[in-house]
């Protein structure tokens, strides 16, 4: 019994030392976390150059944000800014949470309503900076920072937009993570498409509105860039932007694949395409190669562009992209 008692202090000493070590580790973690938080706080003020080449200094991490564009809203949510977003445009439909946010108008936004929400920053774009100059100036005069992101029409532009919003909102690390993920996915899809022979690369007809007024996607659009990434040939590549085509011209082009983007508002859009008079001999119709893709994913500059590219790949090369 006496021998046992002699060992008790040793056990106690070991226990105390272990407890001290655990406490020191815990204190170190708390200290490290505080230091990390402090470093994050020190990221502000930040100065960015927006899409209109204007330098904007943001003094502290924004606590309230209003977005005037669906693409900016998607990006902001992807950056984890759900709680900070207090207002969105009337056209915002993704993610679902965006639909419960306060609406501030469409092309003509409600200046008074935006001011009443007391946002630290408003996310606009370069087009709005030109077309809604007076309204945006009223916001700036009320002390709100207005950031006009660049007009994006390519993946590279979209990466810049995401990075800009990330820098302005204190979520730069998350923005970099999203962009890196997008780039990696794009390269993966391009690499897979590169293995497809030229003989298998089809002529593609992009249709963004149904007859009688048919519009398609030409060069300088996301859809054209996606087709280029996939090695497919865009029938309207020689045209710029969103050219209007006659039915005769579209039929004469005889596309191998037809992709429509208006299925979200035209019922049975694919079935209607198959039943068009005068299109019976078009390869895409004869071979049942008409597909519907999500319009937002192939035209909206945001994180979901890579999903749009993947949808296009599956439509054009179903055997390769299963």
Automatic annotation (TrEMBL):
Which InterPro entries does this entry report, sorted A to Z? ABC_Transporter_SBP (IPR050902), ABC_transptr_periplasmic_BD (IPR002491), Vit_B12_bind_prot (IPR054828)
Keyword check for Ion transport, yes or no.
no
Q: Name one Pfam family in it.
A: Peripla_BP_2
- Residues of the signal peptide: 1-18
CDD domains named among the record's database cross-references: YvrC
Keywords, A to Z, come to: Coiled coil, Signal
* Coiled-coil residue spans: 172-199
User: Domain Fe/B12 periplasmic-binding: where?
Assistant: 64-320
Could you tell me the Gene Ontology terms of the biological process aspect for this record? cellular response to iron ion
Cross-referenced SUPFAM superfamilies, in alphabetical order?
Answer: Helical backbone' metal receptor
- Homology family: Belongs to the bacterial solute-binding protein 8 family.
NCBIfam families per UniProt: TroA_like
Q: What is this protein called?
A: ABC transporter substrate-binding protein
Organism annotation: Heyndrickxia oleronia
